[in-house]
Structure formats: structure tokens, C-alpha cells
Amino acid sequence: MRNKAPQVSANSLTGGDKPRPYKDVAAIILAAGRSERMGAFKPLLPFGPKTVIETCIDNIRSGGVETVVVVVSEGPRAASLKTQLQNSAVTFAINPDQASEMSDSIACGVRALPGGFQAVLINPVDHAAVPGEVVAKLISEWQQGARLVKPTWNDRGGHPVLIDLEFRNELLNLSPAGGLKRFFVDYEKQVRRVPVSSNYVACDMDTWDDYLALHQEVFGDAAPEMTRKRS
User: Fold this and answer.
1) Pair 34, 72: CB distance under 8 Å
2) pLDDT of 143-189, one tens digit each?
3) Is the pTM of this model over 0.85?
4) Using an 8 Å Cβ cutoff, are 130 and 59 in contact?
5) What CATH number is associated with residue 129?
6) Which of 16, 39, 199, 204 has the fewest C-beta atoms under 10 angstroms from its C-beta?
7) In whole angstroms, what is the distance from residue 219 CA to residue 129 CA?
8) Residue 46 belongs to some domain of the structure
């Protein structure tokens, strides 16, 4: 059972109704997976008043990151996701192989980044509940000189991670087997592990039970009843 952490608005870090945007940091949301263990398409599951993917985008932007690239696959699910986000002002990157590793989706997202950015926040879509204050804290650490930033909860690493784009070539050539985990091990001496106040950085949402438990914890009520359709 999760220990619920206190959630603080990102606004408290910025002193205003909306945090100032960070023009040199973009975000990549990884949403091209098959959601096989979930048994339903994870990004479009109801999550409070919105969907998982919309909540993920909102939380990233509440931390001050305006430019968001969403990596999707091809096919009917991707089409539905694009329709859902048609007014969200995000950029889509296509990973045509749903069976590929996360490293391929990261490379697709990095290639789709507009020019001029110096760092990228990488977030799997199932870490949708991470509040904007965590995003802002990671960026603050980067602004203070950290090149690789990973949030931790009770010494357990989590997502999103922030990576300086001096590592752009490495992100384009991640090990398919090791992915980001291997990358952070290889460059361990440059990693700044940052304790944060949200346990959601370390909460995966891989299964249906994970989804139900997280929805209950975040919103205080059960997820809307729906029928799971396996593809």
C-alpha cells in the first residue's frame, strides 16, 4: 500500500497564478506502448475530470514546461489519442513499432524536438500524477548546474527525469535492452538524485489494479466504471 505524500501546488514555488515558462526546457511524454498488462489503452483512461494523458500534460505545464512532444504509435489508438489532444498544442512524434523498446520512442521524441532547447524532461505517460512542483524542482537543479536529474522518493528513483541536451546523441542511441536505466548507470557520476515530496514519482501504473489504486489515492474516489477491451 502506498504512503500518500502531501501534494503542493507548483504555484507556491513561483509566487503567482501560473509559473513562468522555461523557454530552454521541453518535455517528451512516452505514450506509444501497447498497454498489454493494463488491458486497456492507458493514455485515454479517465483520470479525475480528464484522461491520463491530459493530466500528464497539465502537470508538466504547471511546472513551467510549455513545449510538449507526445510519442505515439500508429493505428486506431494513436488516432483516438490525437483526436483527444487536438486542442492541446502538443507536437506528435510517431514510433511506428509498438513492439519496440522505450529507447526507440525516446529517440523519436528527441528527433521531434524543435531547435533551441537545452534540456528535456522525459516522462512515461503512466506517471501522470507527478505534480508540477516536482517538474519545477528538477529544472531548478538543472539551472544550478546538474546535467542529469532524477527525482527520488524514499531513496527510490522515479520519473520524470531531466537530461541536458549535451547528451542528445546518447539519447538517440540508447541501448534497447538497457534504455534510460543503463544510461543513468553509465553516467552515474553526473546524476543528481533529488528527494521530492511526491511519492508519485515512484508509482508505476502498469496494471488495472495499479490504475484503480492510484485514481483512488489522487482523487479520493473510484475511477469511473468502464469495460476494458483488449486489442
Assistant:
1) no
2) 999 999 999 999 899 999 999 999 999 999 999 888 999 999 999 99
3) yes
4) yes
5) 3.90.550.10
6) 16
7) 10
8) yes
